[in-house]
């Protein structure tokens, strides 16, 4: 089976179980070959509360992803958000996605 189809199946399964609210938003992580893109989403009001990417950060892809996770955590803490739900978008919890989660946890977000 194609990797894209497997990822979409995992994504649909995860999204059927989790949802973000204004008190506990969803941290959606998506990636491309060039970078990692993060958003804090309030699904109840269909709004993006904060977003960031790793395009202006120097280092390896994994280091940049970790710093982007730290950056989104700082943005969340400025908004008064300390608890989130992590949406890995069907990607395996490995590599850059894991680095994003570790960076966000180190700066004070709880999942």
Question: What can you tell me about this protein's structure?
Answer:
There is one protein chain. With 111 residues, the protein is an alpha+beta fold. It has one domain (3-106): Nucleotidyltransferase, domain 5 (2-Layer Sandwich), CATH 3.30.420.100. It contains three helices and four strands, in the order H-E-E-E-H-E-H. It has helices at 3-17, 61-78, 96-106, and strands spanning 26-31, 36-42, 47-53, 85-87. The chain has a four-stranded mixed beta sheet. A hairpin with a 4-residue loop joins strand 2 and strand 3. The longest helix has 18 residues, at 61-78. It is globular. It starts with a helix and ends in a 5-residue tail after the last helix.
What is the second-level CATH architecture?
A: 2-Layer Sandwich
| SSE ordering | HEEEHEH
What sort of overall outline do the alpha carbons produce when their principal axes are compared?
A: globular
Total domains:
1
Strands, count: 4
Query: Main β-sheet, in a few words?
Result: 4 strands, mixed
- How far apart are the first and last residues' alpha carbons, in Å? 31 Å
Output the structural class.
alpha+beta
Range of helix content: 25-40%
CATH names the topology as: Nucleotidyltransferase, domain 5
What CATH first level would be assigned? Alpha Beta
Q: Order of strands across the widest beta sheet?
A: 3-2-1-4
Low-confidence stretches: none
**Number of helical regions:** 3
Strand content: 15-25%
Mean pLDDT: 93
Radius of gyration: 13 Å
